[in-house]
Here is the input.
Amino acid sequence: MDDETLKANLLTLYEQAPAGYIFTAPDGTILRANATFRDWIGYAHEELRSHRLQDLLTVAGKIFYENQYFPLLRMQGLVEGVTFDLVRRDGARWPVLISSQLQMDDAEQPVMIVSTVFAAAERRAYEHELLLERRRADQLADVVRASTDAILTCSVEGRIQSWNRSAEHLFGYAASAVEEVPLPDLLPFGSAAEYQDAMRSLLSGEPVSAETVVRRADGTEIDVSVSMAPHRDELGVVTSLSAIIRDISERRAVERLQQEFLAMASHELRTPLVLIQGHAQLMQRSGTYNAATVETIIGQTRRLARLIDDLLIASEIESNRFGVRLVELDVVPLVRSMARQFDGVENRVVVRVPDFPIVIHADRHRLEQALANLLTNAVKYSPQGSEIELEIRDEAAKVVIEVRDHGIGIPPDAIPHLFDRFYRAEDVVETVKGAGLGLYITQQIIAAHGGTIDVTSEVGKGSTFRLRFPLTHDATQVEPVAALSR
Amino acid sequence: MSVIERNNVTISGSGTTPMIFAHGYGCDQNMWRLVAPAFAATHKIVLFDHVGAGHSDLTAYDREKYSTLEGYADDILQIAEELDLEEAIFVGHSVSAMIGVLAAVKNPDRFSKLILVGPSPRYINDGAYAGGFNRSDIDELLEFQQSNYLGWSAHLAPVIMGNPERPELGAELTNSFCRTDPEIARQFAAVTFLSDNRDDLPKLTVPSLILQCQDDVIAPVHVGEYVHAHTPRSTFVLMEATGHCPQLSAPDETVAAIQAFLEV
Here is the structure.
């Protein structure tokens, strides 16, 4: 190629290049710009020569140019790939990257700036996506970090890749330590066969969930529910797995308690029924009316009715449907009637109440249930022949109803748990029948009345249950009481 | 952490009269590289980086302190106190011109003269006052900072780290010349471009020189004229240089203008 041809070719190369090539004076005035740049910017050559390059930028770009781009260029002689937006003649934005080189003369004075302009719309879009992806990933990472469930990811070989704080707590392995622990050691999944089954499903793309047992770092085991999901790469191959693990030991404990309770309750319900059936059959066979038999039958039906009431109340409390309707009520006749009801040959019930009315805001039916529970207990835990006292007292702005027995008493370590659902003090479980609901329900009823209940007791001497009710209380119907925590 | 370390203060020159150079938004004390040496024989040259810029201590950055220009002004007074400077000549570029004004209003005894290069007391237009920018322009600038941090820091980073294929650029390349922590840069931009210190100009008692460039989009000529009109004892010089950084684009003219002012 001779020089003339080369010059012509170079000029074409310059003008048609896939980038914009611009020569400017040190102050930015455009000396020459190639055809590509002119096309991008929408100005003809003559128009461009009265502009400085920085005039073709957005306001933000101008400020950046003056404050940073030019100083960098002046000090370093070179600036590479800085993001700008050109403003085209029609006002549209044209995303670019600009690189510039400063040319100096022999006296170290700037004489020209040579700039290359790259179209960057695609790159800008990628950057934007990258930013959004990063934000999304950060947000998800926060969710995982904050989750109370253990969340982990692992390779298909079972090597742990990520491990959140809750996983550290659940398993007892720090994130740094767990990498060496293979997955089968962390999730026994039952037998080796069950583990293989689970893995097979996952590798074929099926999520898996199960309730299983987890072995912690200290060797202890806890009940968990596990959800595992497979994750595919861009080619559709399963390359990693994730697991969300929840500690269900509390749920299990509650389930166990409920099973025990059901077993106990059905036993408790059956006992009075057996007695009713037995005595009725007795009378049927003998063909004659027997007052004592009938009294027993009636007593047992009452007992059955109370137990069923207790069960219903407990169910209402649990599902937040328990309510009381408070009206003004004179408790004196109510207490007298309860005393009469429980006064029997085996245990006398003595009542100490004033002659004048004592009025509180109460729900008659519920209050009767509460007192019935306390009196039933008093009878249950007292030896034959001992006395039970029912008393109403006035105490500084409160009405106190006391149920006092002289029975076996309550051991001190049982007292804090007395009002817990299903609680029965250990030493009485075998000898005395009951479902353990009575005091729990009693306390809920009293609380719904705005009152309090407490107990003092001495083993071998007896117990005193004290109910305190406010004298002033917002009247009328109270909303269902939220179930108090156990 | 001493003030000297915090602000990367460098002292040179063989004169006695102190001359403090304050860089503006964007870069660091290297901005004065072509101008400060001219005064080294006759003055004590004090160069520093604002906290967040150059080699200043980034851990000293306090969002609350630097939420106004006063925070930066206090730093200058601290430097002056630490070095026991008296009758100092203060040269401030761009936003540092106003920072210098605030420092001199607070403590005029420290300074004998102020040189304000491309000053602006407020960038956003306000009724009859033409700062040069709309609020939407500045919002766009701050948004540009916000969404473009990949562009600002990641692109500048490889440039600033130096280019091993261009050894001829040699030792001139400094790593943090115009790279600020993006968070700090964001706040400094907001504080600078949303500032309004017009009311502080009349309070200045120290004589000042306003060096105004032509075709400066950041501090246009009429803003420089405003500063002159509202600042007592001020001298206005319209330079031949264009753009916003005459200390880099026209260092000789800048040095001459300053010398002329100092000799008076």
About this structure: Chain A touches chain B at residues 26-28, 52, 54, 58-64, 66-68, 70-72, 74-83, 97, 127-128, 130-131 (CB under 8 Å). Chain A has 15 helices and 18 strands. The radius of gyration of chain A is 43 Å. The CA atoms of residues 137 and 155 of chain A lie 19 Å apart.
